[in-house]
Amino acid sequence: MKKYLMDKRKAESQKNLNNYRKNIILKFRKSKIYSTIDEMKPNLNKYLLNLKINGDIKKYPEDFIVEEITEDGIVLEHGKDLKDAYFKDTPNWNGSFIHFTLEKINWNTMDAIRELAKRTGTKRKNFGFAGTKDKFALTTQRVGCFGIKPEKLEKIKDSIKDIKIRDIQKTNVKLRMGSLWGNRFTIRIRLKENTDNVNIEEINNILKNNRLNYVLNYYGMQRFGTYRPITHVVGKFIYNRDFESAFYTYCGAPINETGKTLEARKLVDEGDFKNALKIYPKSQYYERKMIRHYLKTNSFKESFKVLPPQLKSMFVNAYQSYLFNEMINKRYEYGFEAMEGDILIDGIPTGILIGSNSELSGGIQGEIEKEIIDKENLDLKAFKIEDFGNFPGARRKLITKVYDFNYYVDNKGIVLKFKMERGNYATVVLREFIGMELI
Catalytic: 134? Predict the structure, then answer.
């Protein structure tokens, strides 16, 4: 009896010790993740105009229209068939590739592609695109695929809610990421109903006197996550090979969530993956997939392997983008005229998108780049990340041109129209008119 009681007390003590250790680890992990999220808030801090017009964007998806412009300068106008004019079938088609125009409303590009793969009975990796587009918007873009018969696309082209397929073209050329000139934007800013003494003529005069030819070339909020800005934080953890924190940040760490998604993320934070999986909404497709794979492999790094290559790359790309935005903030103090030591593209000073092959500028810009690298304690060679890819870096203009800027004002608000080259963000233009907090 005495031995039984001693064994029981020993087991209880061990259990209490294990629970104590578990709680200490959990508390430390949550503190690290949430403090990093807090320290790495999106850093679009500077403005050229900052007009602060009291308006809203994206009340309806149709308020934000994004029409892709191909490398040949063709604008993929929404609601318009362009096959006969621009997208005729290639003679001597070898049966390899098909390109088509994808028009979508309130779908993100990855989910739309996944739905198309499902409807055509093929794999998502059989599809490619030149660039991702906004979700809560009306957008057009060219998509490429292989291993699919044109008849299958014809059959489903009008069968998916808020998705249309048009301009189906047989071609022998693969569509690659970045194979576009840019995008044309048509964006409505709706004046807030509670705005006191809204004076349409006054707004018209403000816009007339503030033509926008260039903007700060920030990476926009979409890069980091508009409603849940953690993509770059995940990327930093991946760069540091801290796959556990990366996993918890992506699948847990609730920020603006509500309902079942909020409950599920809280359970992930507590390490209760099985119960999180039970209540995670199906719309959180990739989180669910990662959790299932972790339960199967017991490896945080392995869990990322279930993600599409573009999404895996997006995390580290977002971290690089965050660091680039910080360069703009620091260069702002000196202005954006060319200075000694600058590396120019089209006569415009550039900063580095920090990566494995980065070479620093000279002069003040070089000092800014070195300061950021030192502050983050970066080893450039470490941007070659096993199972995620090589992130070589690049040079990017610190300011960028806005093409064909135009606008009109009506009793509903303001409509802005303009074009931007690929890799640039319309929201960076919008923030100059309505401020940061709305976008």
Answer: yes
